[in-house]
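Appendix B, example 12.
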Amino acid sequence: MNSLLTNNSAMVALETLRGINKDLASVQSQISTGKEVSNAKDNAAVWAISTVMSTDVESFKQINDSLNKGSATVGVGRSAAESVTSLLQDMKELIVSAQDDLNADDRSRIQTDITAKRDQITNIVSAAQFNGVNLVEGTDDVNFLASLDRKSDGSVSTSSINVDRKDLTTSVGTFGTGTSLATNITSSNTTVDGTAVAKQLELTLAQVSSDTSSFSVTVNGSTVTQAFDTDEATTITALAGQINGLGLSGISAVDNGATLELINTNAFTDFDVSYDAGGTNTVAITNNGDTSENAAAADTQNVTVSLTQRAESTELSTVASVNDGDSYRMNVNGNAYEYIAGKGESMQDVARGLKTAIDAGSEADVTTSVSQDATTGAWSVNVDYSGSGTIALSDAGQAGGTASGGLFGLDNVDVSTAADATAALNNIETLLGNSIAAAASFGSAQGQIESQSEFITQLGDALTSGIGTLIDADLEAASARLQALQVQQQLGTQALSIANQAPQSLLSLFR
C-alpha cells in the first residue's frame, strides 16, 4: 500500500545512508588521526589498555633520564677513585725510595712530594660530585630509580639500583657511645716489656785434637764458611767478623770469647740459623731468646727462632660481625688509638685500621704488625717495644660511632726516618687496597646502570610497538574502505532520492 504519510522505502534508504555516513566518518577519522582507536568511544577496552601502556612508556622515559644521571654520578665517583689510586701508587713509589739508606738525606724532599700528592687526593675527593652527590664522601647508600614494575593484579611498584658510597676521606671518625664490644677485642697482656731477653742465639764451638776443618753457618739464607783456628776464641772472633760483614739488617754477631751471640733486633721476623760442623769438631746452638725453642747440641742442626717474644698482641674476635660505626680502641703507652668501622668492613679492616692509627702516633721504639691466626682465623694487632722499661697496653670497644674514612691515616704518612718509612709502606698498601676496591665497585655499578638503561630503552620501544598494534589504523585497508564507502554513499543518496519520488506516482491517480 502506498501512503502519502509513510514512505517505508525512504526510511530504509535513509537508514542505510546514515549507516554509510557513520562508517565513512569513522574511516575518515582513522585516516586523519592514524588511529583506529582514538578515544574510549571507539573501543573502551582497547583504549583503557593502551592508555595504561602509554603512561608506562612515559614513566620509562623518566626512569631512563634518572639512570643517565646515575651513570654520570657513578662515573664521577669511579674517575675520582681511579685518580686517587694513581696518586697512591705514586706515593708508594716515593715511600719505597725512602727505604734506601742511600736516600736518607733526601727523605725531607720525598716527604714534600708525598705531602703534595696527599693534598691533591684531598682536593679530588672534595670535588668529585655530580648534581650535588659525592660518592667518595660519607657512607650512606645512594639509590637510583631503575624500573617500574606492574603486577598482574594491576599493582605498581618501583625498583632501584643501590650504589654503596666509598668514603675516601681521611676522617678519623667518632668513637661510639653505644653497646660495649669489649668481648670482641682482647689484649694478651697489659704491658710490653722492652727489657726482655734479646732475640739471640748462642753458638758454642768445641775443637777436637786441633782439627782445622772448615764449618759453615747460615743466617737467614746467607752462608759463611770458617776454618777452625788454633783455638775456639780466635775462631769465634773471625766468624763474628764474617757474619757482621754480610750486612744483614737488624742482625749482628757479638764475640763473647767462649761463645758467639747472634742477635736480631727486627720485630715480627723469623730468625733462621743452621750450621754444618764439618770434620770432627763440635758446633752447638743454644737459643737464649725464647726458652720454648731451646736448641742443644743434640738437637737438629737447623734452628728457627720465633721473634715475637718481646711483643704483645691485641686479638679481634673471629666470630663477631662488624657493623657500621663499631668502634675499637688500643691504648699504647697511655695514648689512645682508635678505628671506627664502616659499612661492609671486617675484623681484618679493623686490625689494619688500628695498626695505621698506632703508626701515625709515632710512638718511640714501637713497631706494629697485623697477623691472622691460622687455626682460629682471628686477626691480631701486634705491638713490639724495643725501648727501656715497659709500656702499657689495653683495649676497648663500643658500638654507635661514626666511621673512619677509607683513607684514614693518609694525613700522617711520614718517611722522615727509616722506621717511619717502613710503617708508611705497610699502611699505604692498605689505603691503596681501599681505593682500588672503591674504583672496582663504582665500575661494576656503572656497568649495571648502563645495562639497565639499555634495557629500559628497549622495553619502552617494545611497549610503544605494542600500543601501535592495538590502536593504530591500517591505512591501506582504510583507503580501500574509504573508496567503497564513498561509492555506497553515492548509491545510497540515489536510492533515497528514488524512494522520495515514490509518492509522486500517486498524483497520476488523481488526474
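The chain is about 40% helix and 20% strand. The longest helix spans residues 44-99.
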